[in-house]
Amino acid sequence: MAIMTERTTRSSVSFAYPFHLSGIEGIYPSGTYAIEVSEETIEGVSFVAYRRIQTTIDLPSNTAYMSRQVVEIEPADLEEALARDLETGNGKS
Q1: What is the DSSP string of 24-48?
Q2: Residue 81: how many CB atoms within 10 A of its CB?
Q3: Which of 11, 12, 17, 89 has its CA 20 to 30 A from that of 34?
Q4: The pLDDT of residue 37
Q5: What are phi and psi for residue 84, nearest 5 degrees?
Q6: Are 23 and 77 contacting, i.e. CB atoms less than 8 angstroms apart?
Q7: What would the mean pLDDT of 57-67 be, rounded to a whole number?
Q8: Could you tell me the residue ranges of all domains in the chain?
Q9: Cβ neighbours for 45, distance < 8 A, ≥ 6 positions apart
Q10: Would you say residue 15 has pLDDT above 70?
């Protein structure tokens, strides 16, 4: 019986300007945001390898009864938002 193991990596990203992410309603303020990536091992290979199963970002909530929300995102959408932030800083908005 194979045992699937998971690992979680936490990091942060910083936005110098307000930003939005594809598929998520709203514009979020500049600042530093927590990112969490969950991965599981890939079985049947001769070396240790992992497959990403989920990426989340910790965002401020848009509602009065919650202070924050953890939202699943596509890594490519995050990379695009970070690239737009960098372009904005370079005067290419």
Answers
A1: S-S-B-SEEEEEEEEEEEPTTSSS-
A2: 20
A3: 89
A4: 96
A5: -60, -40
A6: yes
A7: 80
A8: 9-89
A9: none
A10: yes
- For residues 58-62, give the mean pLDDT: 84
For residues 51 and 40, the answer to whether their CB atoms sit within 8 Å is: yes
Burial 29-68 (b: 16+ CB within 10 A, else e): eeeebebebebebeeeeeeeeeeeeebbbebeeeeeeeee
Residue type, 74: E
Beta-carbon-side half-sphere exposure of residue 52 (alpha carbons within 13 Å): 11
Query: Which pLDDT belongs to residue 90?
Result: 73
The Cα–Cα gap between 69 and 46 comes to 39
pLDDT on residue 3: 61
